[in-house]
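Example (one chain per record):
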Amino acid sequence: MKKLFTILILFGVIFFTTQTNAANLSQAVATLPQNEEWSIMSHASLNQNVGQSYLRSPLNGGSATDYEKRILAITSQGQNARTFASQNFISILLSKFDGNQMGDPTLVNDDIFGILALKSAGESGNVINKMRAFILSEQNSDGGWSFSTSGSSDSNTTAMAIAALRASGSVPGNAVVYLNSTQNSDGGYGYTPAMDSDGASTAWAIIGLRSAGQSVPPNAISFLESLQTSNGSFKWKPNDGNSSSLVTAYSVIALSGKTLPIRTVANNPPAPNPTPNPVPAPNPPPPAPVPAPIPVPPPALQPTPPPAPPNPNPVPTPSPVTITKPTSTTQTTHYVTISYPDNKIYVGNVSTADSRAISTLIIAAQQINLLYEIRNTSFGQFVHTVNGYAPSGSSGWLYAVNGNIPSVSAYDYNLQPGDRVQWFYGDGNTQPY
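Predicted structure:
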């Protein structure tokens, strides 16, 4: 009896330890907004349906990745992205396919998420096959992928490429080898080999490995769990003082055991209305005699119409804004926040050799897989969208340095070492937050 009692105590200690070390995912999603697609997907990974009214809102003039993210969020709720909202998001996304690849021809990530989005909606066929071939053609010699056609491999894009290729067929073995090369001794994954581990890279690596049917290293799970803060949200790096909503959403999906897409909605066309069998009239009268037809001379032969002109070439995607690489190699560090009302998207330190304020957004976005768009305007280069949040009315993306809003664009503003940069959404009267 004493031996049995000892075993029960030992079991209880092990069970309690396991429970207290495991992440509290319900607490994590409670910190997330319900008007952002990744957050909605993280709720769905716990079988919670939220954000339906937001998902029904139209996307006007968005990039391919904006529509892909919206489709993945809609299908994660078990809804049909063709009929759920006022827009048919599937047909709009397909219109961005140029016959060979999706969206911007200089990017690979819009093809990767294009496959995931279309597969989540039950699509198959030539468009997916073409995007798959494009992704495979852009694999780097080290086995990985970059988000662009000219970049170096990174763990994040490689993990999602693995998920997309697995959703549409097989995965090259060297892709998994590259992904494994980005894991560090602490169990976490870095953006590239030898880079420090971070929560975004680790979460995406777990999702990629799981989607390929690979075992997830237990120390990767432990590293990601260790990033959860007391309020339930997750930090990007262990030493960060604040958490990130995007990293929290990624972490919930990864730790819930889900992959991308979260859910697949079958593309079942509606059944045609059955044709009713005609009911014969009772005792129909005999038919009237049909008069002999009056002969009609055959019509004159019509000339053969000229062949239709060939389809015009698809409208090319506008070239993305290019940021000239700095000539200096001196790195400066800046504390950066990216905030949308009720959504703290990014909080952390950014190190860059480029003194322009706009570089802080670009580097922060790369760190947590944040989508953004920079446009050329008659007034210079401006941030148009961040995480799918686009200008509306008089509101758009603004930036502040040390609490003050500069009078020049972020492309033209040169930072000093230690400057604090705030990116925030609002109108001209909005104060930095």
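Caption: The chain is about 35% helix and 10% strand.
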